[in-house]
Task: structure prediction
Amino acid sequence: MSRFSVTAVKYGETTLPRRMVFADSAGDDTKVPISLVLYLIECNGKKILVDAGCDAMPGYDVQHHISPAEALTRCGVPPTDITDVILTHAHHDHIEAVHYFINANVHMSLPEYEKAIKRGLLPPNLHVSPFEQTRRIGEVCAVVWGGHSAGSLIVTFAHEGREYVISGDECYDRACLVERRPTGVSCNPRKSFDFVNTYSSDKYTVLLSHDGAILPGQNGYVKII
Result:
């Protein structure tokens, strides 16, 4: 049986106003803590990174921050070892540090690819392969969901009979799922509601890309599988 592992790699933390986290909290600027997390999936000889992270977040008060490349190196995987990067969407904090992964095949949806090209977010030497609906990389599947932004992705995989979902920014906080409260940052509110309604089911384990419960007050890594 091939080795399969998933590691949450945290490289910093910041806050979002509650109105961004929950659609029903318009006007509420109370700060909600979030983590800056990459997920490293190792299977079938591949090292797949979900999102690339960022070296800086202008306009945000970021704490305990290190380079995503340094965070990966600390958990034993230098950036040059990454074989594939799945970019859930083309927002700064998910894509800006993609330049570190020079040996990787980069996968993203066509709408997010077009947005990234227009904004100059993709270095010319990267191998980027956009797709329209789904892309399978080994045991992992990237699926266009399109709630948070036009081509935003989720990432799914199964392990030992359990279904896992990496949320990207379709969901910021565990309470979104527990209370079925969609995100406040959505280009398609119906799809955002569909996400929390679908993945609040006990059959799924949802891994949040900004899970504030991961290593609060520090950076580092946590083995999920």
User: Anything to note?
Assistant: The radius of gyration is 16 Å. The chain has a mean pLDDT of 97. The domain at 4-218 is CATH 3.60.15.10 (Metallo-beta-lactamase; Chain A). DSSP finds six helices and twelve strands in the chain.
